[in-house]
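Why do we care about 3D structure at all? Because function follows from shape, and shape follows, mostly, from sequence. That is the central idea of this module. The next example makes it concrete: a single protein chain, its amino acid sequence, and then its structure expressed as C-alpha cells.
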Amino acid sequence: MSSRTVRARKTFNRLSLQAVIQSIRLISWVLPYWLAVRLGAALGLCAYFLLPRDRNRAISHLGMVYQDQGAAWIRRTARRNFIHLGRSLLELMVMTPRRLERSVRFEGLDNLEHALQQGKGALFYTGHIGNWELLGAAVGRSFPLSAVAVPIVPENVNDLLLELRARFGIKTILRGRPGASRELIRIFRENRILGMLIDQDTDVESAFVDFMGRPAWTPTAAASIALKFGAAVLFGYIRRDQDGHHVVTIEGPLVLTRTGNEEQDIVTNTAQFTRKIEEAVRRYPEQWVWMHRRWRRQP
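And the structure:
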C-alpha cells in the first residue's frame, strides 16, 4: 500500500469519526435517556458487524486469553462487548448530574475518604472497564478530581471529551501541554485526587508487566508518581449491572513496594496495579476494550 493511500485512508477515517461524533452529539440533545441507551446498544451491535478489523481483533484477544472457552462463547462475549461500548457512548452523552446520582452507587467509598484525611492527596488509577468516563464523573461530583489524558485526534473529539468531563467537575491535564508538571505537584499539595488510566499500550513511559498471561507494555507514570509524592494509591473501577445501573468499587490504599531501587520499584508496583485491573476484567470480560491492541509490543 502506497504512502499516499495510507494518508488518504487516515484522513477519511478521521473525517468519518468527526461526522459520527457530531451526529451522535446532535441526536443526544433530543433523545430521552432510555431511548439513547437503547440506540447506543443498537449502534454497538452495528459496529460489531460493520468494523471487521476491530471485531476480529476483539475475538482474537478473547481467544488468546480464554483458551478454555469455546468459539461460541468468545463471539458472544465480543458481540456483548461492542453493545456495551455503544451503550456507554450514548449514555455518557445524555448523562446529567441528577441522573448520575440515581444511576451510580459506590462500594468502598470510605476507602477514598480515609485516604484524603491524610492530607497528601490520592492517586486513583483504573482501566477501561465499564463506562470509565462515568467513573470519573461519579467521583468528580463529590471530590476534587483531575485526570491525566493524552490529547485525542481529531481535535473536536478531544474537545467534546473535555467538555463532558468538565460538566461533572473533572479537570483534565493533557500530557505534554505547558504547565502539566506543575499542575501534578499542586494536586497533591492541595489534597486533591489524580485519576489515571494505565491499561493501554501507548507512546508514554512504560514497562513490560504481565497482563492476562502475556507481557504488556504498560504505562509506569502512576507508580512513579505514587513513589515520588507519597500520596495514597487507590484502585477503582465501574461496572454495569444487569438492571442497567452502575457500581463503582474502590479498593485501597495499596501498600507500595519500596526497596530503594527506584527503577525496579516502579516496575514492581506497575505490575501490582495491573493485577488489580486484570482481576476486574476477568470478572466482567464483556466490559473491557478487547479491540485495543494491548499486546502489540512484545519484549
